[in-house]
Structure to design on (408 residues):
């Protein structure tokens, strides 16, 4: 029997704040009620601020991030169309697999896992495409397998430099609502997310933002679609309804999630993720003497860290010990990285002490797995980082300094 909170430090699903749980503790409601549109129309509009989107629309479908990929592809492309993509982890790989099953001709740039979107190679491919055969450029903003964040503004820049009219499609499943994302400024045409990561909700919604250009492309796209059809969704959303039964409880949760993100302030959300990520990454490198999978520090993700173990150690063993002995869930290494890395998810509703809990449990599990890691080494480094960068979390006017306490 488990006592106390289980530590959920996988890179999604993430911890659900009490406020969101309460917002979803509701009886089921009539999704065709006359006052339902007042709720949905505003939510659809407000979500655009989270994507930093000035035009176009946001859709939500019952589903997950994978459904979001499918919605983006099936609504805007036709079998035989060419797309430019890169693979540097399991999720960028799976998106390419999905494209292939839709009969697309995928021009894939294979990268080493731990690298990000290969900007120079995208530039070359786009410049070489004089006939504009490439209809969409795919980019995984945050590759959750390797803990790598790519530069989407740079992808847009090389598309503009090549004067290339392709759609820019971005997988933001593990970045949006945690890492800065600027749909309109970066000229993103389709951005895909899901409810269970930065939005801090249970799995169950695919959230997809589409630009006006993407919506125009959807008028001509020939791929088969029914459940994910933008057109059907638009017709119904315009009246505040859905073409089929929506996940009303999740939508109520999403309302509260958007409110929480905006009350904290999106920039503060991004800064908090950055600061927590730095604590983890310093613990890994300076405390434990291990390396991160991301090839450079600029690429290191603010939502997930993939930690490489020296050869001779099985990363799955660490994950299993953490789970069984310390009630701590860490992410396993996926595909090519299975057994070589484990991952700490640090996104969503999270603070310093929660991160220290994860680091302490990880450290204990690594020591149990005979890794040469000193007790407290990672925790100590992260503690110092958090102390040095601390800001007040409440408005309590005065915290007595230690000297005064001793003098009392
Ligand atoms: N893309 C990225 C970057 C992901 O991390 C994930 C899942 O973790 C997906 C896509 C697939 O999303 P889902 O599992 O919600 O279908």
């Amino acid at each position: 029997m488990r006592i106390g909170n289980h530590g959920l430090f996988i890179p999604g699903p993430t911890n659900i704040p009490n406020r969101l749980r309460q917002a979803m503790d509701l009886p089921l409601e009539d999704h065709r009620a006359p006052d339902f549109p007042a709720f949905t129309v505003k939510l659809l509009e407000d979500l655009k601020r989270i994507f930093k989107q000035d035009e176009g629309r946001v859709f939500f479908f019952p589903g997950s991030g994978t459904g979001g990929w499918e919605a983006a592809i099936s609504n805007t492309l036709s079998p035989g169309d060419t797309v430019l993509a890169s693979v540097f982890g399991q999720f960028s790989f799976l998106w390419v697999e999905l494209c292939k099953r839709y009969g697309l001709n995928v021009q894939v740039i294979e990268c080493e896992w731990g690298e990000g979107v290969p900007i120079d190679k995208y530039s070359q491919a786009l410049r070489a495409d004089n006939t504009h055969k490439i209809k969409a450029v795919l980019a995984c903003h945050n590759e959750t397998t390797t803990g790598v964040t790519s530069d989407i503004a740079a992808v847009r820049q090389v598309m503009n430099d090549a004067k290339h009219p392709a759609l820019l499609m971005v997988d933001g499943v593990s970045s949006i609502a945690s890492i800065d994302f600027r749909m309109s400024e970066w000229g993103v045409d389709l951005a895909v997310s899901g409810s269970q990561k930065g939005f801090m909700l249970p799995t169950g919604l695919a959230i997809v933002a589409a630009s006006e250009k993407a919506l125009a492309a959807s008028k001509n796209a020939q791929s088969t679609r029914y459940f994910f059809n933008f057109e059907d969704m638009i017709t119904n959303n315009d009246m505040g309804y859905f073409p089929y039964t929506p996940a009303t409880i999740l939508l109520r949760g999403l309302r509260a999630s958007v409110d929480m993100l905006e009350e904290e302030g999106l920039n503060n959300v991004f800064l908090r993720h950055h600061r927590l990520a730095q604590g983890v990454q310093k613990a890994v490198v300076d405390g434990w003497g291990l390396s991160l999978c991301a090839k450079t520090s600029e690429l290191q993700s603010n939502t997930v860290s993939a930690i490489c173990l020296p050869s001779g150690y099985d990363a799955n063993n660490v994950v299993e010990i953490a789970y069984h002995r310390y009630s701590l869930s860490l992410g396993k290494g996926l595909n090519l990285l299975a057994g070589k890395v484990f991952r700490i998810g640090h996104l969503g509703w999270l603070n310093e002490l929660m991160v220290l809990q994860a680091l302490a449990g990880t450290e204990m599990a690594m020591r149990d797995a005979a890794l040469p890691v000193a007790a407290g080494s990672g925790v100590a480094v992260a503690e110092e980082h958090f102390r040095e960068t601390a800001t007040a979390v409440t408005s309590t006017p005065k915290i007595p300094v230690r000297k005064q306490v001793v003098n009392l």
Notes: The chain has a mean pLDDT of 96. Residues 12, 64-66, 91, 140, 142, 144, 171, 173-174, 194 surround pyridoxal-5'-phosphate (CB under 6 Å). The radius of gyration is 22 Å. DSSP finds 14 helices and 14 strands in the chain.
